[in-house]
Amino acid sequence: MEKLVYRFQEGSKDMSILLGGKGANLAEMTNLGLPVPSGFTITTEACRQFYQTGKKLSDDLLKELEKEIAALEVQMGKNFGDVKNPLLVSVRSGSVFSMPGMMDTILNLGLNNKTVVALAEATQNERFAYDSYRRFIQMFSDVVMHVPREKFEKKLEQIKAKNNYKIDADIPASDLKKLVQQYKEIYQTETQSDFPEEPKQQLLLAVEAVFSSWDNARAKVYRQLNDIPDHLGTAVNIQSMVFGNMGDTSGTGVAFTRNPSTGEAKLFGEFLMNAQGEDVVAGIRTPESIDKLRNIMPHVYDEFVKITSLLENHYLDMQDIEFTVETGKLFILQTRNGKRTAQASIKIAVDLVEEKLITKKQAMRRVSAKQIEQILHPTFDVQGLKQANLITSGLPASPGAASGKVYFHADDVVAAKKRGETCILARLETSPEDIEGMVSSAGILTSRGGMTSHAAVVARGMGLCCIAGCSTLTIDEKKKEISYGDIVIKEGDYISLDGGTGKVYLGEIPYDHNSMGDSFKEFMSWTDEFSKLEVRANADTPKDVQTAIHFGVTGIGLCRTEHMFFNENRIFAVRQMILAESIDERQKALDQLLLMQKEDFIQLFTITAGKPVNIRLLDPPLHEFLPKTEDEINKLAEDLSISTFYLKQRLHELSEVNPMLGHRGCRLGITYPEIYNMQAKAIIESAIVIQKSGIEVAPEIMIPFIGSQKEYNYVKDNIAKTIEDILQQENIQIGYQIGTMIEIPRACLTADEIAKEAEFFSFGTNDLTQMTYGFSRDDSEKFSWDYIEKGIMKNDPFQTLDFDGVGELISIACKKGRVVKPALKIGVCGEVGGDPASIRFFHELGLSYVSCSPYRVPVAKLVAAQVAIDEPFKK
Ligand code: PEP
Ligand code: MG
């Protein structure tokens, strides 16, 4: 029979699949000799059995539980339900992957009308005993019977208001007793049954409820968002209670061994005196900084600091630690790898390497592609910020900048997002029910709660900007408005949040897209030590090329020359070239364009300084450059001194029914060789200028839209002749290459033939996907979502490679190409070149590089390193 319950002494940190993260770490800490309250863990296997048997606790589990409760009673010298010395426990969920706040917890279980008296006597603290009891009733009712918490909160608020008690701790025992009575009445009315007095019955109901909470709506959403499989199930930890609400020498808190927002290597945390854990996490009272504990209880503080560094050194990662002090004695209730912002993730990984705790290879796995994406998220533009209208500030709970329309309810945010709005969610405090609204917002603002409140923890995990505990603002969720003195901000008004400083601004502020710290640069530089796949960028303006170089590309993978033609100053020459009646006329226009293109290439080659630059010859159908509106047509006719009627006729001749399959790419180079000759000339003459100036230059000339070797040869021979003539004239050598895009299925199937002539391949997955799937790359998003929702496709194939279809064609082309030329340089320059899952595929195929837009380069570089590191573990 499989063991379903493990005492803490029997587990270890490597057993998280079975014991959940929390259970495994409680076991590990127990075995490290740390002050962990005794207890045991019900396994995730027991949870899976619970679901398999129609949500029933199995007889085997019941037997084991009976045995372990008895053992715990002996160990603690306390018994369940004992009227003199009662055992009280906490019941907490603990899944394999951390899901903060998503599932349920019950504290103080074991209290009833008799044990509460015993607890009061044993602690000589009646107030404490009844406070614990009323909390237990509320939590039990909420978690097990789903009685709304507000019903209890209302009674609590009533008693406080009636007696002028400012905070919960002001409520005396006599009133807490009354509250207990009122709470039980609520339970009775809501559930039509008496509150269960028998501790073992309480325990079994609680275990069932925690198992059931695995399947609650918010946990499901969280799992979906974080790719956590549904079948894992949760463990349940039963642990003897220690109390942080036993008076002035008791307290409870949460601390991170490093700052989870910035990564700074300094203990960061909060605590509340005379309180239980939920008070800190729920953000109901605003806690004190952990540094203050040093003044209040120096011994406890010193011991705690020692334990935090022991745990970090043991787990080799930043830890998030929950602790309780019971009448001056410290207990550790939980440790786990702490959630952190993207910035913190990178800084911590770099610092841990520098502190020699982990290797660079390990550091590569500590940062996710998502986090790199987040770090590239915008901050506010400095100038914009200077002019912004600051209202007030709260706690900088999660960095980043967000400017958007404010909404007060999760549903409203979801609806506004669907309308295409950027939203800020403002709440008194968030709770797990708000999760969908949080996901859909650009930033979160709360007026209550601290740095470890629900809003703060969840926002940091999601990389969302968050300002918590902004208590100077009055957030009225019912009226849907925020007020601050005379200022009233209504639903739909713009506000801006700076999660790094905690500042709240009125109105919209523009973003700055370029802010990253030193750790980021250091971390990114390490990726090259591991990756086999090089990362290039698709870039055609000096600014984009500079950004790409800044992010550490090995070259430019695609320079779309047509982008250089759309410029306002150039379009007229382009139009003259297209509409020319004779070769002579066309040549005149081309001569003008030649000078412009040379200017472009000289700039690019100067910035790239010897890195390969892949320049693609003109690709789109020519009519894309021509005017569309009546006004534009009239103007062009006038400028060209031709009649509008004649121009319209020419436009009609050039228009196509299926332009994406029409007269474009190399087909233009076949009809109008002089266009490609001009481009080749511009490239090589610029390269000569650069080389003569002492800068290295490595142009790759790429012919687009090739479907056959003959097509390729025709174009290649033409431009090669142009180039060689120039080089001969100048008596100079330039290390240039001519190759092709592979973006037509036929090119994949005849890649061996093409490879005989081409010096490199670059897969244009945008067109290749369009032609393989037969989906228009410009319109398919209108229906692709239906395909995804109905399970027909897993992803949009224009975002993540269609491995089975397009991937197979790429694989065939690589094999055929490399049979002819084993060292053939092969890259990818379509959109999927920056997609993590696709990058893994390209790495496994042994491609030379991927090329993507400059802002996707850091993600691509990290993934390229990670997949190379992962390689030995496959098989
Ligand atoms: C492609 O087709 O994948 C490609 C990179 O070229 P373009 O997007 O310019 O057609
Ligand atoms: Mg293309």
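The CA atoms of residues 65 and 183 lie 29 Å apart.
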